[in-house]
Amino acid sequence: MSVIQVQRKPLSLAERTYIPQILSGMKTTMKHIVAKPVTVNYPEERPEIPPGYRGVPTLVRDPHGREKCVSCQLCEFVCPPKAIRITPGEIPADSPNAHVEKGPKEFEINMLRCIYCGLCQEVCPEEAIWLQNVYSSSGYTRAEMVNNKQKLYELGGTLPDTHLKWDKKKAAAEKH
């Protein structure tokens, strides 16, 4: 096996002083100094959320302040990581919402398990679960990462509802 000796080309004066490389680096630095920043000062500045973003799942109330969830448990069954746990409860007969089938006694979403797939929102027949634009949830313990019913309603709030299914049912029952 023969070895071929390769002769190195001698460096020019500019290459020996590294001036072209330094100027190239300075050009790149100056270009980024005047360019628009690509980062934000989080949490003081919030990034713009793109349409269709799926954030934290929450429970919402109808415009009259009634719980929209009727404890059908479809979201619990369809949830791939089993992050949702519902305990159905009865609505008292003397309640103003007695015409509604059921209500959740307990409703929990484990945010450590949730994969933000949105299947719970898609399957909900009452449109009671909405994925909000909240993207940062934090806690010091595992228990703090389980959103209970009260916290889910605080995050969700009230959304406009054009169906008013239960109001129509109540009005029909009062006619007869």
From TrEMBL:
Cofactor dependence: [4Fe-4S] cluster
Presence of keyword NAD: yes
Cofactor note: Binds 2 [4Fe-4S] clusters per subunit.
Domain 4Fe-4S ferredoxin-type: 57-89, 105-134
Keyword Iron-sulfur among UniProt keywords: yes
Subcellular location: Cell membrane
Binding annotation for [4Fe-4S] cluster 1: C69, C72, C75, C124
Stored Pfam families: Fer4_7 (PF12838)
Keywords of this entry: 4Fe-4S, Cell membrane, Iron, Iron-sulfur, Membrane, Metal-binding, NAD, Quinone, Repeat, Translocase, Ubiquinone
Family per similarity comment: Belongs to the complex I 23 kDa subunit family.
Subunit structure, as described in the record: NDH-1 is composed of 14 different subunits. Subunits NuoA, H, J, K, L, M, N constitute the membrane sector of the complex.
Any one of the GO CC terms: plasma membrane
Chief place where the protein resides: membrane
Enzyme Commission number(s) of this protein: 7.1.1.-
Protein name in UniProt: NADH-quinone oxidoreductase subunit I
